[in-house]
Amino acid sequence: MKNKKKLINWLCLFGILSLIFYLLHDIIGALNYPNYNWLKQAVSDLTAVDSQSFVVSIGYVTIYKMFSCLCCALVCILVKDEKSKLLRIGIYLFSIMTFISAIGYALFPLSSSGFDRTFQSIMHIYVITTLVVLLSIISLVMIAIGSLKGEVKHNALGILAISSLSLMFIGAIGCNVVSKEYFGLVERCSTYSAVIFTAILGIYGFFFSSKTEK
């Protein structure tokens, strides 16, 4: 068993950096948005095209998207010989979701007023968000099953995939159940579930070769 990491393994750690920059966009963006209330307001308000925090937040979000897409692409390369087909396809679908999210939301951002029935807002909410949600659910289910039931088990990855999926559902259900006073809090459950799982994939990619090479 080889323990020496290749460059591609180290580069997978961009997934952790993507999480850090997403946190920075949330924290620093809120500091530049007068009277922003993270308990009430969605994290997407910080990058609304007409928000006061847009100029500051969009820089951190751009770096987050770049790092997350790079991480997912590298993990896809690493798992091309993974024995579990379900796990492999699940990671591919999660990566596709990451690229759709990065490109789609950049092309069709919302204004601070939210859904205003324009083509841009329709694309953002009904097309991009629908694709992102469906691909997230399908990919996490496949990753979980493939990790726990595959010939070579990756129990930690499977359990974390289930945890991320649960967090996503808690956020989605919570947004329709809790009062507006806590909308921002539960909305972040869904948003951060995918962001955190990208970091988890990066860690998985970092250790992948040392677990599979002989």
Protein described:
By secondary structure, the protein is an all-alpha fold. It has one domain. The chain has 7 helices and no strands. It has helices at 7-11, 14-31, 54-78, 85-107, 119-149, 155-177, 183-212. The radius of gyration is 18 Å and the shape is globular. The model is unreliable at 210-214 (pLDDT under 50).
Return residue spans where pLDDT drops below 50 for at least 5 consecutive residues: 210-214
Number of strands: 0
Shape annotation: globular
Structural class: mainly alpha
Please specify the SSE layout and strand pairing.
Blueprint: H1 7-11, H2 14-31, H3 54-78, H4 85-107, H5 119-149, H6 155-177, H7 183-212
Helix pairs in contact: 2-3, 2-7, 3-4, 3-7, 4-5, 5-6, 6-7
Please provide a brief summary of the model.
The protein is an all-alpha fold and 214 residues long. It is built from 7 helices and no strands. The model is unreliable at 210-214 (pLDDT under 50).
Q: What are the defining features of this structure?
A:
mainly alpha
